[in-house]
Structures are given as structure tokens and as C-alpha cells.
Amino acid sequence: LEDGLRLIAARGRLMGALPRNGEMAAVLADEERVRAVTASRGTRLGIAAVNGPDNVVVSGEREAVAEVLRELESQGIKAKRLTVSHAFHSPLMEPMLAEFETVARSISFSAPQIGLVGNLTGTFVGEGEVTRPEYWVRHVRDAVRFADGMQTLHAKGYRVFLETGPAPTLLGMGRRCLPGEDSLWLPSLRPG
Length: 192
What we know:
The protein is α+β, with helices and mostly antiparallel strands. Helix content is 38%, strand content 17%.
């Protein structure tokens, strides 16, 4: 527990110390279409998350995000800027990665005791995958594959989903990944 908390605290501290010159936006289009528009922006932004079949988050420099949103809007694609402090899962996280890796290398990792779907692949993690510092460094920078994770769980027969958090945000995203499925969606908490 202490190592886990140390890793989480270092991640938050290092991210919080980065410049606040980034932005994130949820785009209502598929990953291929969004990738076609973001590819030309190089290291200024990237795809931060694939949250559903038509829900992709872009993240990066504020002006680059604005450019992408204008281009997508001209194609009739809707997007919504997200209220965030930083451009998470984007190239703007790179200045913190070396120091975060140093912290991650000081952590004693343990293998998961139950099956775990990794955010970086959307598949069940392999032996030793999440017990390496490199995984957690990549987790800061690379895209979250939420939709792929939901598909993996569904394919393995999971039908009960419990969100453990302060609001049931991910349950709605999960439902959109598995439309028409007879699943049970349970929040642990709701605001208020």
C-alpha cells in the first residue's frame, strides 16, 4: 500500500508541476478518423483515450487542439473541450517521465491477484507486465484503451460492472461501448 501511494503521489506531484499550456477534448468520431486529423500535428498533440466506438479524446498543446477541433468541425464532427488542469496522456507529459521512472524503479511491485485489463492495451495483462516500471511510465504518456477493455471483458463473459469512484462517469461510457447488452451497471457512489 505504501509503495502504491508513493507512486500515485509522485505521479500527481510531477504532473501538477508541468506547465498548464495544454487542453483535452472529447471528439464524437471513431479513432481512425481522429487519427487522420491529428497525425499531421506531430509532437504537439495526440490521442489520449479511446473511450468508445465514437468517443476519442485528443490532448496536447492548446493551439494544436483548437486547430484539430476547427478541422473536425468543418467536417461536421462534434467535439467538447474537457475541463482539465493539464493535457494528460499527451506529449506534454514527457518532461516528467524521467523523474517518474526513477520513482517507479524504487517501488516494489506485486503481481495482480485477479485478472486485470490494462489501460494501455485493452487486454488482460500478461505475467510481469504491470510489475515493471516501464509500464507505469508509458501509462502517463500513452493513450487509454477503455473501449478495447470493455470489449475484452464482454468477450470473456463479464456482465456485471461496478464503478468504484466518486461519480458513475465510466458506467455511461461502458454502456456506450456495449450497446444493447443485458448487463448490470452499478455505481459505488453518486454525488451528494
